[in-house]
Amino acid sequence: MDNKIYIFIPITYLVDGILGKFYVPSKYSQNILTSTCNLFYLASQQRTVWLSALQRVCIDHRAFMPSFPFENMSVKELEHAALSPSQLVDRLKNGSSNKALEPQRILPFEPLDSEAQPYSFSWLYLIPGGRFLFTESARKDHIALWDLGNVGTREEMTWLPVAVIDDGRLVLMDACPTADETGLLLSTYYVLHPLILNHFTSSSFDPWQCQVVIYEIYPSTPDPEFTPKGELNVNALIDISSNAGGCFVFLTEMDEIVLWNLATNDSITWEPPIIVTIHKPTH
User: Fold this and answer.
1) Higher per-residue confidence, 26 vs 171
2) Going by fewer Cβ within 10 Å, which terminus of the chain is more open, N or C?
3) Helix, strand and coil in the chain, % to nearest 5
4) Which residues contact 147 (CB under 8 A, 6 or more apart)?
């Protein structure tokens, strides 16, 4: 007669326990719970648990899931990626201010251009997840996408861009995931007509015209390439915010807010009852 008792626990409960619902980070142990509870120790050895845990972390922190090669990662690599955010936050909150927080690994970013010369850029945008980076060339002649590799898997970083937009007019603004969260939507713009100054009052009454151009790219495919997905004319653009799936919000110099749905190509403009001020970084 089998006297063993079998306990079946949903994987979501195990993930909750591992990620913090019942787990308190400790500077003395990577996961103190797995050292004191047989159930969680056994769970911590299962690949499916850590796959679910890392996926949960990506959702909670809005990280771009293709940043992690889930199917090619070992259990230890999945564990490291899933626990690192909470451990970093814990160290920042509770660590000694007299001791510097040393990175586990330092990867110098020393990219090369198409002619194997040192590459310089004037603006960059790192996609949440830490793997994919957009840069605007210092020479203002193109925008590039880079694959920095996955630190947890010890992959080597490539020194050439994954894909390039050869258009010197474009200014890099923002990026967000596509609706299926497997690709990226890159927000750019260029000025159609420059600002015209009123020489009698030394003020600018005539707004400049900006053409917003959205590009789509799937960086995890074998041969990624930028594809134009839509354009919108915006007066006196000063800032942009994008949301996953293709909803964009623009703020103009005339204190107008423009909402644009890329999928339907519908836009609406209104003036808020209060003046909105955003200090846009120069680049």
Assistant:
1) 171
2) N
3) 20, 30, 45
4) 131, 132, 157, 158, 162, 219
| Tens-place pLDDT, residues 170-206 | 999 999 999 999 999 999 999 886 655 444 444 444 5
Residues near 181 by beta carbon (within 8 Å), at least 6 away in sequence:
64, 65, 244
Q: What is the pLDDT of residues 87-139, one digit of tens each?
A: 777 777 776 556 666 766 677 776 666 566 667 788 889 999 989 999 998 87
CA dist., res. 37 & res. 123, Å (int):
48
Q: Range of 15's domain?
A: 11-94
CB 234 within 8 Å of CB 210: yes
CATH number at residue 183: 2.40.128
Q: Does 24 have pLDDT greater than 60?
A: no
Residue 239 lies in a domain: yes
- Beta-bridge partners for 123: 136
Q: Which of 27-41, 69-83, 215-229 has the highest mean pLDDT?
A: 215-229
CA distances from 131 to 41, 42, 186, 261 (A): 30, 31, 16, 27
> In a 3-state reduction of DSSP, which class is residue 46?
coil
Q: How many CB atoms lie within 10 A of CB 247?
A: 15
Q: Are 67 and 130 in contact (CB under 8 A)?
A: yes
Q: How far apart are the first and last CA of the chain?
A: 75
Positive or negative, the CA dihedral 97, 103, 107, 109 is negative
